[in-house]
Amino acid sequence: MTDETASTGGAAAGDETGRRGLRIAQDTKRSLTLLSPTLILLILALAFPILVLIVLSFWTQTGMSLTPGFTTENYEAFFQKRIYYMLLLRSIENSAMVAALTVILAYPAAYFVAFRIKRRKVLWLILITLPFWTSYLLRIFAWKVILGYNGVINSGLIQVGLIDEPLTFLLNNRQAVVVTLAHAWAAFAILPIYVSLEKIDRSLLEAAADLGENPLWSFLRVTLPLSLPGVIAAALLVFIPTVGDYVAPKLVGGNNGLMIGNIVQTQFGRGNNWPLGAAISIISMLVITGIVCSFLLLVHQAKRRLA
Amino acid sequence: MKPSGRKMPFSALGAYTVLYLALLYLPVLFLPLFSFNDSIYIAFPLQGFTLSWYEEMAQNTAMLNALKNSIKVGVVVAIVSTILGTMSAKAFTRYRVPYETPLKAFIAVPLVIPLIILGISLLVVFSGANMSLSLFTIGVGHVVICVPFSMLVMISRLEGFDKGLEEAAQDLGETPWMTFWRVTFPLAMPGIIASLLLCFTISFDEFLLAFFLSGDESTLPIYIWSQLRFPTKLPSVLALGSCILILSVLMVVLAEWSRRIGVSPTGKGP
Q: Same domain for A139 and A274?
């Protein structure tokens, strides 16, 4: 940033440059001072623990004692036992479905608030995001109450006389997990989509209309592409955290709905094999990162081809 | 002002949005509904109105203890996170930060990392350092996930008001510290309150980190989790859940209101 001022030359300007350079140095120092407590905390309580987890994944555990060393047997175990591999795959599939479901369901609502609501937008936004701020545990649990054997749906349907026996296919499967997570994360998807729709220059849409585009075409060719960043952000914001979710599979998934988070927890609890749990976590994290990166790359390429 | 032929989509979209909202709320609203139901079973038909689950809840000392712990952790986490978040936001909005994008991304990592991985990695470090798990270890985990939220709230607040006010104070000879105290702080106050409330709400509701990092003393979500296994305890858990629901709603509305006051383009500051 200093070279543009340096090129002006002259004694007065040189003095100016010096003062400006000093100011920049001072600025940098102040900014780093302000940032240092946060950075130190995150290095100690985020970066360092992840590093330790990586190291631990190469250790072994016999009984209660950990043996330092460098062995890849935990990683081999992951790929040899189909269960871990399958569970990671299933978690990713579940979360991809959850992300797709939340984005598709949230888009029209976000569109409505962004384009059709003229006044009191804030009120609508608060209304939509409110359920998100209530207890996560209870939002998940609510679905157990709804889908359970003696739950709301079953007892309601019996009461009305539509069924005689409770339906058992509602709870304890993947579908229950997907529906529950899609509900729990819905509000998380709507905000980024709304923000990207709100940012769209309205004159572009008017131009499209003036040029005789019908509303559907102008939506497909103007609004949708311009809101894509919000859609992508929403999908990732839902996808990434839900892959590792522990609560929903545990409460509404039953044995058929287990996900990778449950296996990780087991290794750190009853299973008591921390290095294996660490290896499973590291693999999951790498796979998630890989998926996210290739997804972003694909979107980037698709955009370039269209442009 | 819009081209014609838009009347129909309006009503269809509007109807969809209302339906969407109803679906968002409905599952959650079953909790308060059954918390007043005079039956141990959470099923239709409703058996009549009762407040006994609320009475049972109020007499439950283990639960009250967990509530106290949650409030303790939440308050400390909110204050620490907001201090850190405000300092970071000030650095990013007011000064030249070297490597700005990577540093911002680093601070935002807790927003996208699966909580279970953060939880176990902190657990490994704490046990490796022979630190016994306690409310403190839960608090550390919560601060890590709250700082990015606080920073984002504070950045949008600090960007919202005129930098010239701070520069004027400095030109008039105030020290940076006094400028912060007498100019920045009062102007940033609504953002600070919003950040405090949001961080408290996040910490108060957080389960997964607390699940891995709690010792003998449990927080409220941990207590609720332990109760979910016992069907007879469910109605009073529902009563508790309904109270939490109302409290969370109140906090968020307050936070949102506080975040928005004084940022109107007319520039009416405190």
A: yes
Alpha-carbon Rg for chain A, nearest whole angstrom, is 26
B245/A135 CB distance under 8 A: yes
Complex confidence, ipTM: 0.84
* CB–CB contact B117 A284 (8 Å): yes
Asked whether residue A90 falls in the same domain as residue A43, the answer is no
Query: Tell me, what's the pLDDT at A187?
Result: 82
B16 is a domain residue: no
- One domain, residues A51 and A89: no
Task: Tell me the residue ranges of DSSP E strands in chain B.
Answer: none
Amino acid making up residue B120: I
CB atoms within 10 A of CB A301: 10
For chain B, positions 25-64, list CB contacts with chain A under 8 A. 25, 27-28, 30-31, 34, 41-45
**Residue type, position B128, single letter:** G
Nearest partner of B71 among B256, B257, B247, judged by Cα: B247
Tokens encoding A181: 């997570």
Task: Note whether B270 contacts A: Cβ–Cβ < 8 A.
Answer: no
* pLDDT (mean) for A189-213: 86
pLDDT number for residue A14? 60
Q: How many domains does chain A have?
A: 2
C-alpha distance from residue A92 to each of A74, A103, A249, A254, B34 (Å): 21, 16, 13, 18, 34
Q: Are residues A269 and A122 in the same domain?
A: yes
Domain membership of residue A51 as a residue range:
3-56
The verdict on residue A109 lying in a domain is yes
